[in-house]
Amino acid sequence: MKVELYLGLGSNIGDRAKNISDAISCLDIKLGRPFKAMSSVIETEPWGFEAECRFLNAVVLYELELRDGYNAQAEGLMILETCKEIESMLGRAGKPEYDGKGERIYSSRPIDIDILFLGGSRIDCPELTVPHKLMAQREFVMVPLREIASEEIRNEFGDIF
After folding, report:
1. Which of 26, 37, 127, 144 supports an S-S bond with 61, CB 3.0-4.6 Å?
2. Dist. CA 115–CA 108, nearest whole Å
3. What is the Cα–Cα distance from 39 to 25, expressed in whole angstroms?
4. Per the confidence metrics, is the pTM higher than 0.85?
């Protein structure tokens, strides 16, 4: 049995296209398979902050084999760790920052990799929320996602689309 993993990628520092390409190459290696589909790469304004450089954004789909004893939260946390390792390898530094109200402070970055969907699973733990909780508000995620989203994902999460 297989599960669809959708990842959102964004970059606004350095060679943005190369950063996204390098991230996908690393994901292919770490996930042990090539991606199944990739959206168009779009250029967008920064979301939630001001910056001199615009972002390049894309969504990539991987089809993962379910292992015996599959647990969506445990799998999601392993994937999150992989994404963070790749971000770090590609030059992203530091941890997320928050203001006095507990709101996330966004900033420029060489690469950002977000887990959008992990099959039909819903994960809500301190480290990870899937589906990604802000994706429906972000056209830079939704436009490329709509290009490659399967009918199964659209049906399962119709409220997001």
Report:
1. 37
2. 19
3. 15
4. yes
